[in-house]
Amino acid sequence: MLLTLLILDPGLDAPATARAAGRGVGGTNAAGRRLLAQMQDQGQDKGEQHLALAALYARAGNQYRSYEHLRAAGRLRVEAGRIQLVLALLYRRLGRYDAALGALTRVLVEHPEQPQALIQLWKTVYEAQLRGARLQTDLGPVLERLDSVGMHLPARLNADPSSASESAKLSAAGYQQLLAGRIEQAVQLFEGAIEALPSNARAHRGLGIARAREQDPTRAAGAYQLYLELAPDAPDADRVDWVLMQYWRDRGSPH
């Protein structure tokens, strides 16, 4: 049943990129007030309120306010791994990629399948690559860990200006192989598409379908998680989200 759920229809289309939006400091403070009021109305405890506000300010790169709320969350005994996840988000936003990777490693030591930690791990390495950051962290084990859960990422980015069109061609060919039932070839093409352009959401989706057909639900789920992260407004996003919820319910939630 689980594998059947994970095999999506390869004929459904999906966008290759997700929209992104930013806020100024004033907008973040206003959003914080709205979030706090909403959580108070819902009866959320104070530790959860501080953690949510810390994450909000981390996304905005506001180090002081994020630390302030993280310290408060810690005093209220919010689980340490959840605090480390927000710290990793803040460090990545500040360009402190080694520190972010260290925080995520600490989470994954305790919770090896924590999906948000794995997604952040992928995004941290990818962003560091995009910015040409010089990392002290040995990426070999990190990339192996990501690949083991279906979150493929090349060791080096392709700087060729034609990489986007090459990625699209490889992804399209991968879907053709899927429809023809040639799964091994499809996996190779989708991985090639991701190596050419890691942000190609459609390639991650296709890789997830192929892994599910290979009866590898762990890698299928990882690829789908990245697909949703990169294309949250995709036409089949709700369907994929539901599939992943069923997967984690059957496995036992790692959160």
Please provide a written account of the structure.
The chain has 255 residues and is mainly α. It has a single domain, classed as Tetratricopeptide repeat domain (Serine Threonine Protein Phosphatase 5, Tetratricopeptide repeat). The protein is 69% helix and 0% strand. The radius of gyration is 19 Å and the shape is globular.
Topology (SSEs and partners):
Blueprint: H1 2-6, H2 25-41, H3 46-59, H4 63-75, H5 80-93, H6 97-110, H7 115-130, H8 139-148, H9 163-179, H10 183-196, H11 201-213, H12 217-230, H13 237-251
Helix pairs in contact: 2-3, 3-4, 3-5, 4-5, 5-6, 5-7, 6-7, 7-8, 9-10, 9-11, 10-11, 11-12, 12-13
Write a compact overview of the structure shown:
With 255 residues, the protein is mainly alpha-helical. It has helices at 2-6, 25-41, 46-59, 63-75, 80-93, 97-110, 115-130, 139-148, 163-179, 183-196, 201-213, 217-230, 237-251. The protein has a single domain, classed as Tetratricopeptide repeat domain (Serine Threonine Protein Phosphatase 5, Tetratricopeptide repeat, Alpha Horseshoe), CATH 1.25.40.
Provide keyphrases for this structure:
single chain; 255 residues; mainly alpha; Serine Threonine Protein Phosphatase 5, Tetratricopeptide repeat; 13 helices; disordered N terminus
